[in-house]
Amino acid sequence: MAALVSAGLAIAWVAAATVAFRHALTLPLVEPLIAGIAALGATIGYRFVIADSGKRLLRQSFALYLAPAVIERMLSSNKPPALGGEMRNVTVYFSDIAEFSSLAENIPPAELVAAMNEYFSEMTDIIERHGGFVDKYIGDAIVAVFGAPLADQEHAANAVRAALECCTRLGMLAGVSRRFGGALRQRIGLNSGEALVGNIGSRRRFNYTVMGDMVNLASRLEGSNKLYGTTVIASQTTVALTGAAFVWRELDTIRVKGRMQAVPIFEPLGAAGHVAPKLRNSARAYGEGLKHYRARDFAGAAQQFALAAGDDPPSALFLERVQELARKPPGPDWEPVNAPEAK
Fold first, then answer.
1. Alpha carbon separation from 46 to 36, 52, 241, 283 (Å, rounded)
2. How would you label 60-94 residue by residue, b for 16+ Cβ within 10 Å and e otherwise?
3. Side-chain half-sphere exposure of 70, counting CA atoms within 13 A
């Protein structure tokens, strides 16, 4: 901006000097231009070397701890961070590595740290590339937020894209798989809704983070993958916000620990137009089986779930469930809602 303004002033001065010369008045032409260029260079140099050095140091230091968007927001406000937050509509992303504790027991600490650093680096790059920021790492878990601190109307769709890409990328991390002795699986939970986002903590130390009941639900959905044998589970709110961008199948209706209201849960099969016909047929049979199950037609449900139970863990789970219900029919107060005991 300073260079453009200086160029404009230089052009204006040359024009004024030319007009004055035509009226028999000679003005110095070159000396003011040289002085202006020198002043511009000195000002820019002073700002780059001295005035902005503090901001560069702050960026470099906090880039290892905060999302780039949070740092830029803090610098542009010209105010120190303070406690406080605001209600925002966001999507929360929870993930962890399946069977991590048992796998980590057999790995030397140095190799485990190297493997986890590579894993976290790859997953974080994908999350940030899709507009999210990593709130924290908890052991092998990643907690990320989409839609804050910068507003993003597509936060739900971007979170799903990040989740699907993370799953694909994990299978390509040969170094991580080698250290763990085989291919890894991760579990991801996604939930969207209103949450408190901001600087939360004590007066001396706080984090830019997210809080609310919807965060807890995202964590519960991540754990529910263990029951269904799936990789990604999203809430109905997240599915609704993504529109027609993805192909989904409804897995079940569950009542998670700590909540009385039952929640429909969904699995993303892939981006719209990129789902294999076999997977679509399997999902269609699963959907038909779910309808029979909810109508208490357990024999009909078993026929549908059996079509894909051989290579589809959720179908195998429901096949076992409806066969048991067919042997021992439930009472009249039965409802087709599952209550997973695990987190």
1. 15, 9, 48, 64
2. eeeeeebbebbbeebeeeeeeeeeebeebbbbbbb
3. 23
* Full pLDDT tens readout for the chain, 343 residues: 888 888 888 898 889 889 888 888 888 888 888 888 888 888 888 777 776 776 676 666 556 656 666 666 666 666 656 667 889 999 999 999 999 988 888 899 999 999 999 999 999 999 999 999 899 999 999 999 999 888 889 999 999 999 999 999 998 998 898 888 888 899 999 999 999 988 888 877 778 889 999 999 999 999 999 999 999 999 999 999 999 999 999 999 999 877 778 999 999 999 999 999 999 999 999 999 999 999 999 999 999 999 999 899 999 999 999 999 999 999 999 999 988 765 5
Contacts of 34 (CB under 8 A, 6+ apart): none
Which tokens in the block code for residue 56?
Answer: 């560069």
Do 329 and 308 form a contact (C-beta atoms < 8 A)?
no
Beta bridge partners of 235: 265
CA end-to-end distance (rounded Å), the chain = 54
Using CA atoms, how far residue 272 sits from 109, 169, 239, 269, 312, in Å, is: 42, 20, 13, 9, 20
- Report which secondary-structure segment, H or E, holds 215: helix 213-228
Give the predicted TM-score (pTM) of the model: 0.80
Domains and CATH numbers, the chain: 2-51 (no CATH), 83-274 (3.30.70.1230), 276-343 (no CATH)
Is residue 128 within 8 Å of residue 67, measured between CB atoms?
yes
CA 36 to chain centroid, in Å, comes to 49
C-alpha–C-alpha distance, residues 296 and 220, integer Å: 27
Burial letters for 231-248: b for 16+ Cβ neighbours within 10 Å, e otherwise? bbbbbbbbbebbeebbbb
For residue 12, which phi and psi values (nearest 5 degrees)? Answer: -65, -40
Name the DSSP class of 308.
T
| Residue from 65, 232, 217 nearest 137 by CA | 65
